[in-house]
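RECORD TYPE: inverse folding
INPUT: structure tokens
STRUCTURE:
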């Protein structure tokens, strides 16, 4: 149950409240004046305080202010025999949770306690969830390369400057964007993410700017877009290099004027959004090829941040392995396990074309599929392939014929590239120089299905 402090200069009120609250199972401390109340609050750190408004020497509103200065999360219920709207408003302005008039009603007291403690529980849950989310997006590493990124985040994060994040798929561009938002003055406002590569070109404008009912087939109701959802906060445009030219023109206007117009609408809507963009492409080459607007590039690229590939920061791999191990054991409800130094050394020497994301998924796979409390180098070789033998997975070496080996190798290659490109079929086809129609046939032939990684 709760720790409750009762502050009132009338002994009868203190006695009655103590009886009622102790009968309900709460631990109760009392104080008869403002000075004693402040001392008792420091010693007891109660979950809830009942505080009389009218007291000699130091009134309740002053005590409330001092309590809230020391503990901004304090739950304080004001009580008064001379209640007025002005007093209640002032108490609320100073941070009171509720205001009760004397004579006190027992049922009202108990309902107030229940609601206040539920509010504290919800606040604690929100804080816990925020900590959990932030741990999921924590940037781990001590290498010079990652320290350079963190230093730039620290400098540009508190500003409203636009940032263009570049780096290979899986290197952690989203982590950088979230870190920028977390250290900005907008941190309590929305962080809205749009993966431009995952949205068909004909729908990207509706996704970003919203649409009006009847704007196109299937638009059965008005819908706000990501710019409006992110108003006051941060909009993260991931894989901006895959955005259509028409959408790029509208994004440019939003950046220049702070105005957007829904598809099918004629009214300009003002939005206050900090835009952070990311891409795995060389946008200057895209500009030369006519696929990206140069003026948009200069608008986005106010502060560039390049996220290093994992092979460029191998010294961080042991720390990342420990981090992913702890997270996987907690999130997947696995029995406690550890990777031996030899196993970590094996992982450190691997190439990691899928970067940090691939390492995370690999650590989870090792923890789930291995036996015993430790994952050793032999387990790594068995489950991932021996780096000393070219890193070929065991299932390839089990092929009975050369044709079978080629099929297995092709399947593994295509699956790896799909993962590397986050299952963007168009991007994968372009990266491996294969017609998209052929790639679809290969996906169907080998029965490839996107895994749920929990990312």
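DESIGNED SEQUENCE:
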């Amino acid at each position: 149950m709760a720790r409750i402090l009762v502050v009132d200069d009338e002994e009868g009120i203190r006695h009655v409240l103590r009886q009622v609250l102790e009968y309900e199972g709460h631990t109760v401390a009392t104080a008869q004046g403002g000075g004693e109340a402040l001392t008792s609050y420091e010693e007891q750190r109660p979950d809830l305080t009942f505080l009389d408004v009218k007291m000699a020497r130091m009134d309740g509103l002053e005590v409330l202010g001092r309590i809230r200065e020391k503990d901004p999360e304090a739950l304080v219920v004001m009580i008064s025999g001379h209640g007025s709207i002005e007093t209640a408003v002032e108490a609320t302005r100073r941070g009171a949770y509720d205001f009760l008039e004397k004579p006190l009603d027992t049922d009202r007291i108990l309902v107030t306690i229940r609601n206040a403690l539920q509010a504290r529980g919800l606040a604690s849950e929100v804080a816990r969830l925020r900590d959990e989310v932030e741990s999921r997006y924590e940037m781990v590493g001590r290498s010079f390369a990652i320290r350079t990124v963190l230093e730039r985040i620290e400098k540009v994060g508190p500003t409203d400057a636009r940032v263009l994040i570049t780096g290979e798929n899986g290197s952690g561009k989203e982590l950088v964007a979230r870190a920028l938002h977390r250290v900005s003055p907008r941190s309590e406002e929305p962080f809205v993410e749009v993966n431009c590569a995952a949205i068909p070109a004909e729908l990207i404008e509706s996704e970003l700017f919203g649409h009006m009912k009847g704007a196109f087939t299937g638009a059965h109701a008005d819908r706000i877009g990501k710019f409006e959802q992110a108003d006051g906060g941060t909009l993260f445009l991931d894989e901006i290099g895959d955005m259509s030219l028409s959408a790029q023109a509208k994004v440019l206007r939003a950046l220049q004027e702070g105005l957007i117009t829904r598809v099918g609408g004629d009214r300009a809507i003002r939005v206050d959004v900090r835009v952070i963009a990311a891409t795995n492409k060389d946008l200057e080459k895209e500009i030369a090829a006519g696929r990206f607007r140069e003026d948009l590039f200069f608008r986005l690229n106010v502060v560039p941040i390049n996220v290093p590939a994992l092979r460029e920061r191998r010294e961080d791999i042991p720390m990342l392995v420990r981090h992913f191990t702890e997270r996987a054991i907690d999130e997947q409800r696995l029995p406690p396990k550890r990777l031996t130094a030899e196993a970590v050394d094996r992982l450190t020497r691997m190439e990691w074309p899928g970067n940090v994301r691939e390492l995370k998924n690999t650590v989870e796979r090792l923890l789930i599929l291995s036996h015993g409390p430790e994952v050793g180098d032999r387990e790594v070789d068995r489950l991932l392939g021996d780096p000393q033998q070219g890193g070929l997975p065991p299932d390839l070496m089990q092929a009975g014929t050369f044709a079978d080996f080629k099929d297995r190798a092709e399947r593994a290659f295509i699956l790896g590239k799909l993962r590397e490109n986050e299952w963007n079929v168009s991007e994968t086809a372009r990266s491996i120089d294969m017609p998209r129609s052929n790639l679809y046939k290969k996906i169907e032939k080998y029965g490839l299905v996107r895994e749920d990684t929990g990312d």
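NOTES: The two ends are 38 Å apart (CA to CA).
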